[in-house]
Design goal:
By secondary structure, the protein is an alpha+beta fold. Helices cover about 40% and strands about 20% of the residues.
């Protein structure tokens, strides 16, 4: 059975602990939040799930996103290595990037966990509403001694394929989330020249909100996005008071050099970690700091 990456290999390669090795032998270090253990794994095997996407969706991701976004990321790395102060993207490339950021959130396996939790919540609501005995009477005999978790796990592959096929293939420039992000968030690139590398988590992007210490609501607006490129490069999308012109032929994106170790730790490691992320790509420059956070 094919093994599908929930984080593309071209992104994982930017976090390799042996980047000069052949791509088939490159590895990453992964810190598990639950077990508090670090393992080293080949990129070819890391963050993969068997038959996670349909064949059509996997081909769609490769042909419509990953190949072209990988070229953009490579262009950014070359510009940063050459100490350029900005890069220029065409209108098509610029919009592709924003679609890709939305796709990365929608393609993640965290959505499967959300589906499972939603099914459990609906089941519990009905049970509490009608009572335990009536609830059992409502069920067909073959389901009366089966937990909702067991039944959901049986059906999840069918539901998962329907969800991901729809969510991924229908993400276009006029998608409300894509459109809102393109219009109201301006990007810049952080080139990290400190002694502490960036990390990467399993849900990829991180959104920062104005609120503090409260749960995020659906209508809350993030002021800041962190979207990793490699262990020393990332996109930051900042909320803009001015609407971005979507009809420009080219977009100039600044590259800023930051080299303060403590600032990187506080805002791009600690500040990048989210409640939903459960594993983190680390290396020798940051693994002890990440371990201390948990």
């Amino acid at each position: 059975m094919p093994r599908d990456h929930i984080i593309p290999k071209f992104i994982l390669q930017g976090f390799s602990i042996n980047p000069t090795a052949h791509k088939s032998n490159q590895k990453i270090m992964i810190y598990d939040r639950k077990t508090k253990q670090i393992k080293t794994e080949k990129i070819a095997d890391a963050y993969t799930i068997e038959d996670f996407n349909s064949r059509e969706t996997e081909q769609f991701l490769a042909q419509k996103y990953e190949n072209d976004v990988a070229k953009i990321f490579q262009h950014i790395k070359e510009a940063a290595d050459a100490n350029q102060k900005n890069i220029n993207l065409s209108n098509r490339q610029y919009k592709l990037l924003y679609r890709f950021f939305v796709i990365m959130w929608r393609r993640n396996d965290i959505q499967v966990d959300k589906m499972k939790e939603l099914g459990k919540q609906i089941n519990d609501f009905i049970k509490n509403l009608v009572g335990e005995q009536m609830y059992k009477n409502m069920l067909r005999p073959e389901y009366r001694n089966v937990s909702i978790e067991q039944e959901t796990n049986k059906k999840i592959n069918e539901l998962k394929e329907l969800f991901y096929d729809s969510a991924i293939q229908n993400t276009k420039d006029d998608d409300p989330t894509v459109l809102k992000t393109i219009k109201y968030y301006k990007p810049y690139i952080i080139h990290n020249k400190s002694n502490v590398h960036f990390i990467l988590h399993n849900t990829y992007g991180t959104l920062k909100y104005f609120i503090s210490g409260e749960s995020v609501q659906d209508d809350d607006i993030p002021y800041f996005f962190i979207e990793p490129i490699s262990n020393n490069l990332c996109f930051c999308l900042m909320l803009s008071k001015d609407e971005v012109d979507l009809n420009k032929e080219n977009y100039e994106i600044p590259i800023e050099i930051w080299n303060d170790d403590e600032f990187i730790k506080e805002h791009f490691i600690k500040g990048y970690i989210t409640e939903t992320a459960n594993s983190f790509v680390v290396d020798d420059t940051n693994k002890e700091f990440v371990e201390q956070l948990f």
